[in-house]
């Protein structure tokens, strides 16, 4: 059965600081895809996300979201974005976890008005989804790195988006909590059919859990992830021929470390 295309890029150039950072990119993302975006530092991964969000200008080509050209797309509540610096906040700010997630329900339609009962129900559902029920009344400055990341994903999910974009969400997350973090995202993808695009340097988790990969180093190479995917060949296109990847068994289905 043919799946709905939710993001489509055709021959796209994206400009940042007056330079073309992404060049001639073409790919499609289908509803329910779980996409890992990988590549070397400075290759343009964040620029690609910002282009898909309409934050950075397109010099050439086109981007469509839910079959509408990005220039006329207006249903931005269907898309949620968690940037790299989401957890860089003043830890003395006197908000609880529940209150911060509640801010995700504020929009132009209800700004200045108290949240409704339905809003708070959505907040509690998002907290439950991200396993934050037991710390809902904690001050945000008391959280660990992993809890902060789950907090901001809960804030993004509280509007029930169909697409979730995450830019290196595991920064500051200790190794012991990484597997649980990625498992939580997998559950959102499979149980709620949320399309997820995640910038990550954790190549093992990308090939373990995700269904598609975008390899980015100015150019963008797209591939489905299957048992037959030639991972070495794919990654060498963006990391270089001198890179060597060693594979090992993973608790999910097989992954590797560089």
Describe the structure.
The structure is a single chain. This protein has 7 helices and 12 strands. It has a 6-stranded mixed beta sheet with strand order 6-7-8-3-9-10, sandwiched between helices. It has a 4-stranded antiparallel beta sheet with strand order 2-1-4-5, covered by helices on one side. Helix 5 (175-192) links the parallel strand 7 and strand 8 (195-199). The longest helix has 18 residues, at 175-192. The protein starts with a strand and ends with a strand. It has helices spanning 45-52, 97-102, 117-129, 145-157, 175-192, 203-209, 231-239, and strands at 5-16, 19-30, 34-38, 58-65, 68-69, 79-82, 163-167, 195-199, 212-217, 219-224, 246-248, 255-257. It has one domain: P-loop containing nucleotide triphosphate hydrolases (Rossmann fold). Helix 3 (117-129) crosses helix 4.
Q: Which characteristics define this entry?
A:
258 residues; alpha/beta; 6-stranded mixed beta sheet; 4-stranded antiparallel beta sheet; 7 helices; 12 strands; globular
